[in-house]
Amino acid sequence: MTVAKEDVRALAQAAREASRALAIASTEQKDAALRAMARHLRKAAPTLLAANAEDVAAARTAGKNAAFLDRLLLDTGRLESMARAVEAVADLKDPVGEVTETWKRPNGLKVAKVRLPLGVVLMIYESRPNVTSDAAALCLKSGNAVLLRGGSESARSNQAIAEALSAGLQEAGLPAHSVQVVPAGERESLLELLKLEGLIDLCIPRGGEGLIRFVAENARIPVVKHYQGVCHVYVHEAADLDMATRITVNAKASRPGVCNAAECLLVDRGVAEQFLPEVGRALVDKKVELRGCPTTVAVLTRAGVPVTPATEGDYGHEFLDLILAVRVVKDLDAALGHIARYGSEHTEAIVTEDEGVAGRFTREVTASGVMWNASTRFNDGGELGLGAEIGISTSRLHAFGPMGLRELTSQKYVVHGKGQVR
Amino acid sequence: MTVAKEDVRALAQAAREASRALAIASTEQKDAALRAMARHLRKAAPTLLAANAEDVAAARTAGKNAAFLDRLLLDTGRLESMARAVEAVADLKDPVGEVTETWKRPNGLKVAKVRLPLGVVLMIYESRPNVTSDAAALCLKSGNAVLLRGGSESARSNQAIAEALSAGLQEAGLPAHSVQVVPAGERESLLELLKLEGLIDLCIPRGGEGLIRFVAENARIPVVKHYQGVCHVYVHEAADLDMATRITVNAKASRPGVCNAAECLLVDRGVAEQFLPEVGRALVDKKVELRGCPTTVAVLTRAGVPVTPATEGDYGHEFLDLILAVRVVKDLDAALGHIARYGSEHTEAIVTEDEGVAGRFTREVTASGVMWNASTRFNDGGELGLGAEIGISTSRLHAFGPMGLRELTSQKYVVHGKGQVR
């Protein structure tokens, strides 16, 4: 599908207009729209599953692997989950209009900070069709219009989902252009979108490194990156070692393909001899391949735990797989140095019973989530209690870490006076 | 002065390294550095004023006008104000480490949101040398390294100021590279800086439209724009008309050259006949030139108040001068429509005694500052109580409106558990 420059601009202009109506829509109206969107998703099941089946067949013909096909696939169960996720957003608190702070000035002016929507959000993602409805619901509730640009492999599914969502929006009296799917598959139309400064207020790219680099290098619109997670678990010498094993195994093996999974284990020299065999066996039981520094290799080999030597490229690498780099460090400072050099500012964990050490770690580590005696896997919007997330930002600007409804808003100063002048 | 690409990158890399030390510097250390910086500014007065005199002489030779030369000029009084402003930042609360929120999850995890610095800030500005020390102080206190790129006309002054600031930093044991002046005057070196994604975390351009457009069109690093203020005062039919006159005159005439000055007055039809002659006379007394819609022209002409017809180009225009566009509108909706079309999302004011109308106005207007019965001139960091500001953002992302110390920080999630896993 070829999309002319003018068409891309027209989509964004329609979104901008819709955003004006959305910004002042009441909570009741937005929630009614979300519930209607969920109803229409269920109602459109036959059309939607047929469109998805075409996408899956085309991807299979194109030789995509099983993991890819699984991410792309919709069935009645997954469709129902999508509809429920949309309804769950209706149950979340509306961030728009929330007064986050108030104060009074010596001259009597009353100042309030009040949340307002960002405007128009451009969401760029890959092949999971559920992102289409999840992102649409979160943007709608936060009063933002959204342009959804999914992967070309899920184009038919996304179009069918967007049609169902638009039907719900119109039923509730909100602009159909509040949610629009941008035709996927061409870098030209994406390039055009990325240049629409003044029409698009925020771009959220979610996906592989190539996609994010492309967006970062070409965007003239504000981008909040959802980049890789090179997360570490640091086991300090004053750690409860059983706890450290549980946390390490969970951080690495509970879901290795996600960004908050651990990719590297750092172990204090003082406890390496005791801890490494214990955690090594637990990890190998979970089919984790270990790549260790020379000390790690020596200790594990003596203990009969399989391990290969780590190369420099194994540090700072996001495996997204059952592979873990392991390094023995001298102390807290060495651990902090390793993390500053190799971490991606996503999630970092320390296991220790020493409060002072934990204090330094949580203060000095720059990462969106810093965990003390908890798994890296908790750096997630749902787990932290944000309700739902549109992604996890690895940029410090605007939002750092899981982005929920609030992170899709800005704040304005509302000032109430009695005629004050300067 | 020609700066090679590699040199620009080296400056940014030095800033990045300095930012790591600054991020964990104590409040005491940062405040000691600020006080030392102020001392060194005073001590360097002879060198500094000599450098400034060269800048002023060169600018005069280049034919710059009196207003420009005045902005560029430093004297002992202005230098003392700069030193005091740096000391005043030492007295502000350190935002780094501030816990903004805490909560507990059902699984027992304790979550805190904690402020951390953004990293490296690039400040791009024009000819006022005081911005150099103001921005350096605010960035330092918020734990950020800063690259200062001022106008070429103030290059000698800025370099001398930066040297004094660096001496203060070193005296307090903080990296001298925390504050660096980037050689000005070439678009190539600016272009290079704007591409240093990953090394610079935030770019703040402050200046004319041309500069801001250039930055917005070329930056691959995050930009928070400090763009124009096309601010309106809307006098509703239920306004206290004496208050409305006071606010309008103050908003327009107290300092017409700043971004929170009013550029357009909107008057409800129901009070136009009574209000326009009154406010018109008060404005003309302050030497304000009025450009009105046909109704305004008719009413003012009958009342003997000088007025010329407004052209379409007068609406949405930032005069930064003693000129005011005036338009009579049908009602609140017409006023909201005008502001949505012509406003720049900077500051908008309503004068009314009707709380319901004020509620709709403050809710529905998208602007960083929305004033009810107060002058637009209050949308300012000092006036709102932020202590000091690095500028006024007109972008909704990250910070909207005056940016103080807090707006130079991000927040991370710090999670404390007892071994929880997912």
UniProtKB/TrEMBL annotation, chains A, B:
Where does the source fall among the domains of life? Answer: Bacteria
- Report the enzyme's class at the first EC level: oxidoreductase
Location, primary (coarse class): cytoplasm
Residues that span the membrane, as ranges: none
Could you tell me the keywords of this UniProt record?
A: Amino-acid biosynthesis, Cytoplasm, NADP, Oxidoreductase, Proline biosynthesis
List, alphabetically, the PROSITE patterns matched: PROA (PS01223)
Provide the Aldehyde dehydrogenase domain boundaries.
4-283
Can you say where in the cell this protein is located?
Cytoplasm
* Molecular function in Gene Ontology: glutamate-5-semialdehyde dehydrogenase activity
Q: Catalyzes what?
A: L-glutamate 5-semialdehyde + phosphate + NADP(+) = L-glutamyl 5-phosphate + NADPH + H(+)
In what pathway does it function? Amino-acid biosynthesis; L-proline biosynthesis; L-glutamate 5-semialdehyde from L-glutamate: step 2/2
* This protein's record includes keyword Hydrolase: no
| CDD domains in UniProt | ALDH_F18-19_ProA-GPR (cd07079)
State which Enzyme Commission number(s) the record gives: 1.2.1.41
Q: Which Gene3D superfamilies match?
A: Aldehyde Dehydrogenase, Chain A, domain 1 (3.40.605.10), Aldehyde Dehydrogenase, Chain A, domain 2 (3.40.309.10)
Question: Which InterPro entries does the entry mention?
Answer: Ald_DH/histidinol_DH, Ald_DH_C, Ald_DH_N, Aldehyde_DH_dom, G-glutamylP_reductase_CS, Glu-5-SA_DH, GPR_dom
**Coiled coil where?**
none
- Main role? Catalyzes the NADPH-dependent reduction of L-glutamate 5-phosphate into L-glutamate 5-semialdehyde and phosphate. The product spontaneously undergoes cyclization to form 1-pyrroline-5-carboxylate.
Give the family this protein belongs to, as stated in its UniProt record. Answer: Belongs to the gamma-glutamyl phosphate reductase family.
Which HAMAP family does the record associate with it? ProA
Q: What is this protein called?
A: Gamma-glutamyl phosphate reductase
Q: Which species is the source of this protein? A: Hyalangium rubrum
Query: Taxonomy-wise, where does this protein's organism fall, top ranks first?
Result: Bacteria, Pseudomonadati, Myxococcota, Myxococcia, Myxococcales
